[in-house]
Write a structure and sequence with these properties.
The complex is a heterodimer. Chain A is of the alpha/beta class. Chain A is built from 4 helices and 5 strands, in the order E-H-E-H-E-H-E-H-E. The chains are: A alpha/beta, B alpha/beta.
Chain lengths: 102, 130
């Protein structure tokens, strides 16, 4: 993928996820980690935006950060894939560059 | 593949230092190289050896120092950010007329040029911060 975007803040705290989803190009990847994983919960205000973006971008959420926040796999928006840190490393290696939306 | 990592947030603030450490550990476990870890802004606070968290909590400074010792990592602390926050090595303590230093094992103080070099030399630069 051209760019792996990482978002680490809750979308209810900052607008970095919304801005990232607006800007990420087709074929890019978006990884939600730390508090950003809250947005990937089924029924969240961002579930629809993530599911729509998944048509053109691969959307991931970091599994250990979901678990740390009590979000089970079955509670994650279906279009969002979960990865562990090893998967995060693979995504970063596969992408041409990594862009952190801090 | 050769990674470089930037840490812009102190320990125990949110999660950036933890995430960066986990990423570094996972990358090393997969056989990747970590060219450098650059600690910038409040991230320099990861580099004080006077950190004394409760015994049942993770000690992030120690975790970084141990990972550096095990894999010969280059942990670089930004000098301007470090001086503002009281992170000093022996030379800087002497130069600034301070009565002691606090830099943790495995860390070294240097300049922003080290971040630029890491960006050039590494295949991927991955940033963790606030």
């Amino acid at each position: 993928m051209p760019t792996l975007h990482t978002v680490n803040k809750s979308p209810f705290e900052r607008n970095s996820l919304a801005t990232c989803l607006e800007r990420a190009a087709g074929g890019d990847g978006v990884l939600l980690c730390e508090d950003a994983v809250i947005g990937a919960r089924k029924g969240s205000a961002f579930a629809k935006a993530l599911a729509e973006k998944a048509a053109t971008c691969a959307i991931y959420a970091l599994a250990p950060d979901l678990a740390a926040r009590g979000i089970k796999g079955e509670d994650v928006v279906e279009a969002v894939k979960t990865v562990d840190y090893s998967g995060f490393v693979d995504l970063a290696a596969d992408a041409d560059r990594v862009c952190a939306w801090l | 593949m050769r990674f470089a990592i930037v840490v812009n947030e102190g320990p125990y603030t949110h999660q950036a230092s933890d995430s960066a450490w986990q990423f570094a550990k996972a990358a090393l476990a997969k056989g990747h190289e970590i060219f450098r870890v650059f600690f910038y802004h409040d991230g320099v606070n990861n580099a004080t050896r006077y950190t004394v968290p409760p015994q049942d909590d993770r000690n992030l400074q120690k975790l970084w120092s141990e990972l550096a010792a095990e894999h010969e990592l280059d942990l670089v602390v930004c000098i301007a950010a470090a001086q503002r926050r009281g992170i000093l090595d022996a030379d800087e303590a002497k130069r600034q007329g301070k009565d002691g230093d606090n830099i943790a094992p495995g860390f070294r103080i240097s300049g922003l040029g080290q971040l630029i070099e890491a960006g050039i030399q590494a295949d991927r630069l991955v940033t963790f911060g606030d």
